Amino acid sequence: MKKILYPLILTMFCLILVFSVISVTAEAPVTITILHTNDIHGRAEAGDGMGLPKMAALVKRIKTENPRTLLLDAGDTIHGKTFTNLAKGESMIKLMNAMGYAAMTPGNHDFNYGYQRLVTLDDQVADFPILCANIKKDGEFLFTPYITKEVGGKQIAVFGLATPETLYKSHPTNTKGLEFINPNTAAGDMVKAVSGQADFIIALAHLGLETGSEFTSERLAREVPGINLIVDGHSHTLLPAGKMVGSTLIVQTQEHTKYLGRVDLTFTSAGVEMKASLISAAEAAGIDEDQEIVRLIVTEKANQGAILETVIGETSVRLIGERQSVRTGETNLGNLITDAMRALSGAEIALTNGGGIRAFIEAGEITIENVLEVLPFGNTVVVKEMKGSDLISCLEHGVSLYPEPSGSFPQVSGLSFTIDPTKPAGERISAVQVSGNPLLPDEIYTVATNDFMAAGGDGYTWFAPAKNVGELGGLDEVLIEYLQSKDVIAPEVEERIRVVYTYATQALESKQTAACF
Asked: Angle formed by the axes of helices 90-99 and 291-303, to 10°?
């Protein structure tokens, strides 16, 4: 009996030991790293951020430390700077391929070349999917709505969401024929679709956290249960440790490669722990740039040389854009730029800061390179609704240092006004007219400006709270399109800005005369 019993007990003990080992193995913590970016806006090279060569090296280092890593992008990536704009987004997609992105969702500015271009990039250039579950055309999804990826033995589901604001935060022709579904409705459908097959659900969203916006990532988190993580963009929000809304973590990296976002997911038998952090450009300073990305940028720039030489127009007069001129008075180039902004946006008024104009153009042929030298910042055109009284405040601010040079000096179209420099700052503007009619303080006007000023830049704080009613592509693209629609440009200074000449000294009067031609 003992001979039979001992082997049986030994066998049972071994089985128990085996099952215990299997149980421990199954419950061992698994860490998955989600790296993320948003609102790069075409900044491939280092500037106010770390740039993609350094970011790529950082991503590579993290993937070496933890191969269970996914790199995601939340949109507004392939438009904004010359490097990306000239290639209509393809140059940026090639860099993202080399960096190993797993997916991106489209931001509103990613539609600035038209949705057909974005579909082409998705189909023919990108090695990763562009995800979006709330845009349809003719009843069909325009992009892949979601993916599931096995990472570290876990099924990670990722679905994309685009802001419905794209319908007016990119030119309306760019999205003509597209249906933008309520993001929360689409997200609810996606959660139902993947819940049975996913261990973790990520919404890759370009919604933002802007106060007053109808659709935000915070509202998504509150109203759609089942989303573990929202990788967000659009509002350029800095979230150093993320933001918990219920059981959902929202993360953003501000903008322009200033930060690389990181979320470490630790799966245990008790559930999943999420820890969000940001790696700053300063922290990445000691990392060598990824040479593959550097070479790709150099090669792409060389290929773009011929595009820069493309002739897009002709001017019979020299277009004045020198610093001293555009920061102290009206110039024909300022007139041309604001006329283009007003014409293509349909706004009643256009206003841009003289400090944003950085070069002149000699009489003769005008090339794309000329325009990019004049407008090098990658700004976009934004249309705001503003009260007449706020417009007057803007003008008063713009001429507050006059006749001293100021980057905030206003170049305008559809608008004329008089400056009296003998009066104190804040009381210098008079005789303001819109298309020949007196400006009414309580009237609402549509005003085209650049996105820097629209956010309150150069001290134009009145723009920031004003209602946004439209966005176009880049300011440089707007000027190029306007030039291509003309035969020969011969803009003169139209006396949109008049000055009361009552200076006490001849020297000051001479300076003013030179400034205003």
From this structure: 160
